[in-house]
Design a protein that fits this description.
The complex is a heterodimer of chains A (407) and B (69). With 407 residues, chain A is α/β, with parallel strands linked by helices. Chain A is 30% helix and 16% strand. Helices cover 49% and strands 6% of the residues of chain B. The N and C termini of chain B lie far apart (67 Å). The chains are: A alpha/beta (407), B mainly alpha (69).
Chain lengths: 407, 69
């Protein structure tokens, strides 16, 4: 029987707060202009960590027991010392992967990264050609990303794809899957686009809560098909929760695996390019636990209150539907990032399959309406209001998944 | 000693409707099936599948041995 991947956090890891996964945004410099970018990347920050600071940080990450460091951006390869950072991660005994838009992930860059010890690359593919190019803000970026994926596969690195699920990409997921299997991908990480940064400026791009009724059976079907075709589907923390497809979408060698709550700050943390530490890389600045320039990483990890939100959360902290949900004790409101970005605080997450099913059984659905715009900063968010309304009857039999977004 | 992390509870999968339930449920709150009976039925089916796979493997091995003899 195969072993679980190193990046899988077990009960001991959670209890002992081992940061199994660290996601490090090494630069905000980017060669794409994504319409859903939470950090609003583009230009590098003036105060990004130096090489010496980065190397010291890698030692500190290893000391905490981390097993997998994921480098992200911006676009990580635009940082001049990215190969040095990869080599240092590997020299410290940790796995190292790269997440990329792939626009300029050339043959030379892939070869150099592999030589430095990089083990895997996740390329972002957010739709078929037209949708991908539109979302990524650069004509031709789809072909370049697909070429990058094929290059990664050819070099024998673990090749993965990340896909944002939103109103544009959801109808194309099956076709995307066929394409990436042909290009050699073996892992497919899927995440619902979060209303943060650039995405907060485009509410029409976001899924509506009732669309979970369509999304979850689709993901279950894709997961099963993927397993048959050697593509392992990995739902991100904001995909769920607890409908009849929970087991199908999360089945890692065991069909009794299920969502057990946000592990941010317990089994993972994120690092911003300036050295700010957060429980998860996507979270807004209110969740910043400190900066490694000011204090040792271990001190931040062990003592920073803003990193303790997940382990301290109780059912009493939940609100709205989540407060009285059957799964409250287990789920604790799902993804902190998603719910905070939508509702202005965590603990009530409308992007939930169980919730959509319960409401649908009463002939109701939830619709999100933006009531406050984002300011325009990195990792900022606006605010949404939940409108509960009757499910429109559009055809013989109720077919809520065929209603237009924001209809 | 450093604060412990949160280890979320393990739920039980209803073999009737594939919903997860709290471990102490006797009847599934979603499909109302008998949790233990459904699990027993599932386990029996899994055992049949395992035995059938074993039998198939044995038959294939025997056929290979005959062919190679």
């Amino acid at each position: 029987m195969s072993e679980l991947p190193a990046r899988y956090a077990g009960d001991d890891d959670l209890a002992n707060r081992v940061p199994v996964i660290v996601v490090w945004e090494i630069t905000l410099a980017c060669d794409l202009a994504c319409k859903h970018c939470g950090s609003r990347a583009g230009r590098r920050r003036r105060d990004e960590l130096t090489t010496a600071e980065g190397l010291k940080l890698i030692d500190e990450i290893a000391e905490l027991g981390c097993r997998d460091v994921g480098l992200i951006g911006g676009e990580a390869y635009l940082r001049k010392d990215w190969l040095q950072l990869i080599a240092a991660v590997r020299a410290n005994g940790m796995d190292c992967t790269l997440q990329t838009g792939g626009r300029n992930l050339s043959e030379d860059r892939v070869a150099a990264a592999a030589a430095a010890g990089l083990q895997g690359v996740g390329v972002s593919i957010d739709g078929l050609r037209e949708v991908h190019d539109e979302l990524r803000g650069v004509p031709g970026s789809f072909e370049l990303a697909m070429a990058a994926l094929r290059r990664v596969t050819a070099h024998g690195l673990s090749s993965a794809v990340n896909t944002q699920i939103n109103a544009k990409s959801m109808p194309q997921l099956r076709d995307i899957m066929d394409l990436i299997i042909d290009a050699g991908a073996t892992n497919w990480q899927l995440a619902i686009t979060v209303a943060m940064g650039n995405a907060a400026d485009r509410p029409e791009l976001l899924l509506q809560p009732w669309q979970m009724l369509e999304l979850m059976p689709l993901l279950a079907e894709l997961a099963e098909d993927g397993r048959r075709r050697s593509l392992f589907l990995q739902p991100a923390n904001n995909i769920g929760y607890f409908g009849p497809y929970e087991s199908s979408i999360r089945n890692i060698l065991d069909d009794e695996i299920h969502y057990r709550g946000c592990a941010a700050g317990d089994a993972l943390f994120g690092i911003e390019a300036d050295g700010t530490i957060k429980g998860c890389p996507g979270l807004p600045s209110a969740y910043a636990g400190g900066n490694v320039r000011d204090k040792p990483l271990r001190e931040i990890w062990e003592n920073a209150e803003p990193l303790a939100f997940a382990r301290r959360r109780t059912v009493d902290d939940l609100w709205g539907f989540c407060r009285t949900c059957y799964y409250a004790e287990t789920c604790m409101g799902g993804c902190t990032w998603t719910s905070h970005a939508l509702m202005g605080r965590a603990g009530n997450n409308p992007m939930c399959h169980h919730r959509a099913l319960e409401l649908d059984a009463q002939g109701l659905r939830e619709r999100l309406v933006q009531v406050k715009r984002a300011k325009g900063d990195s990792f900022d968010h606006g605010e949404f209001e939940i409108i509960v309304e009757p499910v429109p009857v559009t055809a013989p039999g109720r077919v809520p998944d065929r209603i237009c977004v924001n209809g | 000693m450093a604060e412990q992390g949160r280890v979320g509870p393990h739920l039980r999968l209803c073999r009737g409707c594939r919903r997860f339930t709290n471990p102490d449920e006797i009847a599934c709150p979603f499909c109302h099936g008998d949790m233990d009976a459904l699990q027993a039925e599932h386990d029996a089916l899994q055992e049949e599948v395992r035995q059938a796979a074993d039998a198939l493997r044995a038959a294939m091995a025997e056929a290979r041995a005959r062919r190679d003899a």
